[in-house]
Amino acid sequence: MFERFTKDAKEVVRGAVAHCGNAGGRTVGPEHLLLALLDREASRGSFAMAVLGLPAERREPVREALDEARRRAGLSRADTDALADLGIDVSAIVSRVEEAHGVGAMSGDRRDGGRRTARRPGFGRDAKDVLEKSLRIALAHRDRHIGDEHLLLALTARPGPPAEVLADHGITHATLTRVLYAGGEAQAG
């Protein structure tokens, strides 16, 4: 499947691996794909984000929201709210775990002083699902290659912190589809 990726999409995948490795993580997740997408400039995905009100210079709040979700072990706000309905205070749990084990202990990142191993981070099930979904989206739109815009669309099409954070900034699957595939001047290049 990787041979069908555009240069921009390949850079996003490489960037996701780098983000994961830099954080000391062992498994690339959807949030790493989104972080790598946020790094992109002059691509269809970055164009679409800019059109929807998230230009490169305003992407830091998205990164911060993803970091906060990682502190909650990747739980979305919907997950946190559902647990609260059951009487489980996720914030209190995170605080107690971080008191005992340090800030970010629930993020899944290694806590070995930042030392890297020779092993490159692998892709987790959720990240693989995003990659597969991006292929399906490209095929559905009769696009010959998988671009970074398809990765962005795939992230918005599945539940979880990346879709939630993007929606908070006005970027949903529907708005992206309109920008990327609508006729006229709003169509991405």
UniProtKB/TrEMBL annotation:
Recorded coiled-coil stretches: none
PROSITE patterns on file: CLP_R
Region Disordered: start-end pairs: 104-125
Clp R domain boundaries: 2-189
Keyword tags: Repeat
InterPro entries: Clp_N_dom_sf, Clp_R_N
This protein's name: Peptidase
Organism: Streptomyces phaeoluteigriseus
Organism taxonomic ancestry: Bacteria, Bacillati, Actinomycetota, Actinomycetes, Kitasatosporales
